[in-house]
Task: inverse folding
């Protein structure tokens, strides 16, 4: 249990779990949310693509229009009691992006036109960063609403842990790209008009008349929303700099953990965002305080067989201990003067059930006061 981490998580309003792909962001976000709810906070976890089992534990399904409150039975089993509560929402990028289009379109007709546009319907995933952007959009809404004391944000898998923050500007670059400007409605002017005709003819040949038309409509509408989209993302980035927000870097105990963490620290400082802690997931360092085998295990009158068994056990434990020490050293290196580093044990598949999440939560935040 680490009191500084508990203070950090329980006092903030937004906690972002970032990290590269597959390190345990979704699991950690869920465990922290459950833990904070056990400590009496009204918590929402925005989770992205959880495993089936974890989704089942959290009682969420894809495509729900609203966050889902964990049912009373499960809240009780998880040791959550009022005023604490746990809600979860499984982000569906498509749904959030549709809502964004509806909100940003100048008229309902424009929104419907874009939503029905085949390029939009089949191509939103193609747009770099749309998925990451949706995480930001959702967070924006829930934080401003004030229905929760704490929103924990899981982030999408990516090689770069902060991609989701940088996506909107990449989206802007993409849509501002030359090729896509060509798709937009032609500007007046004879020379432009002639060039335009040529471009149109080429694009129509390449994409076919119908798709070319669809693309024009798509980029025509979408480009109009871009300024607003970027405005929101910019505001959100500023929001995330406020002192009720903290970023946790989740990393795994491979050799890359240190490289990952350093790159993340550098980038997060550059963006002037608050780095709260580094969580070293699935780490043997979490077992540092487990008991060591010794003569206390022997019966009052040990036989040679007992002694030999103990020797073997001790040798095994010593080997394990060296691994534990290596990971403790890594943990030490990850942390710094103002960076907290905490280890999470590997709990096997049980981690996706309530007791597993409770175990991680209590390890990170301590058990709730009775
Ligand atoms: N401490 C742990 N002990 C045991 N299993 C774990 C632990 N942490 C994560 N896992 C398992 O590792 C897998 C990946 O975890 P998770 O989905 O949380 O990672 P992620 O960082 O969210 O991945 P992605 O980048 O794909 O979204 C899951 O099957 C999860 O149950
Ligand atoms: Mg995940």
Result:
């Amino acid at each position: 249990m680490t009191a500084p981490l508990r203070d950090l998580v329980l006092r903030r309003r937004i906690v972002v779990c970032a990290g590269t792909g597959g390190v345990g962001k979704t699991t950690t976000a869920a465990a922290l949310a459950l833990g904070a709810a056990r400590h009496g906070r009204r918590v929402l976890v925005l989770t992205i693509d959880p495993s089936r089992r974890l989704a089942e534990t959290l009682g969420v399904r894809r495509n729900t229009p609203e966050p889902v409150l964990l049912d009373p039975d499960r809240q009780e089993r998880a040791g959550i009691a009022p005023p604490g509560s746990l809600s979860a929402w499984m982000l569906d990028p498509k749904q959030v992006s549709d809502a964004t289009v509806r909100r940003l379109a100048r008229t309902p007709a424009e929104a419907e036109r874009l939503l029905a546009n085949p390029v939009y319907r089949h191509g939103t995933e193609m747009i770099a960063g749309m998925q990451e952007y949706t995480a930001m959009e959702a967070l924006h809404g829930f934080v401003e609403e004030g229905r929760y004391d704490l929103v924990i944000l899981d982030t999408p898998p990516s090689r770069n842990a902060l991609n989701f923050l940088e996506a909107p500007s990449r989206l802007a670059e993409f849509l501002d790209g030359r090729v896509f400007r060509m798709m937009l409605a032609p500007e007046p002017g004879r020379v432009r008009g002639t060039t335009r005709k040529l471009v149109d003819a080429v694009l129509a040949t390449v994409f076919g008349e119908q798709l070319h038309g669809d693309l024009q409509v798509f980029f025509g509408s979408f480009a109009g929303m871009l300024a607003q989209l970027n405005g929101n993302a910019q505001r959100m980035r500023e929001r995330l700099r406020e002192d009720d927000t903290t970023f946790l870097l989740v990393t795994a105990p491979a050799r890359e953990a240190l490289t990952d963490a350093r790159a993340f620290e550098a980038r997060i400082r550059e963006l002037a965002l608050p780095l709260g802690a580094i969580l070293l997931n699935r780490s043997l360092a979490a077992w540092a305080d487990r008991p060591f085998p010794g003569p206390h295990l022997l019966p009052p009158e040990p036989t040679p067989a007992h002694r030999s068994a103990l020797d073997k056990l001790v040798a095994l434990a010593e080997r394990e201990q060296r691994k534990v020490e290596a990971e403790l050293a890594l943990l030490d290196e990850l942390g710094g003067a103002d960076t907290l580093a905490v280890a999470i044990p590997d709990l096997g598949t049980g981690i996706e059930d309530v007791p597993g999440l409770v175990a991680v939560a209590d390890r990170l935040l301590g058990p709730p006061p009775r």
